[in-house]
Amino acid sequence: MNSDVNIRHSIVTDTDGNILATNHREGVTNYLSPEETAASLQRAASSWKGRKTLIPKIGNGLYAVAAFEKITRITFPLGDANLIFVSMGSDTVRMDLHEGGQKQIIEHVLNILSRDPTKE
Fold first, then answer.
1. How far is residue 107 from each of residues 32, 62, 76, 104, measured CA to CA in Å?
2. Is residue 2 part of a domain?
3. Of 29, 50, 93, 105, which has fewest CB within 10 angstroms of its CB?
């Protein structure tokens, strides 16, 4: 959450979409109810499982982006058993030159997940 002002919230789930942890930016209101969020995460987790069948041909998935009018959700694998969902507003807010949008957030999260401290 602290890495970019454009991140609305982040959620960690297992591969079935069951929520394990959540972090929500103060002052941000969810567009979806808790039930709608849970159903959306379960659908996304199911899609991610389906992508795993392609690993032998195209390699491991790095992330998936779902863009909507009001938000963009980026899904990353978190080890073999979990996923992290990062939601950002579609209207990016730039407070300074170090805060970006989708590309910068993706690069930053991939660097964190690589556990290589030289990339963070």
1. 27, 11, 11, 5
2. no
3. 29
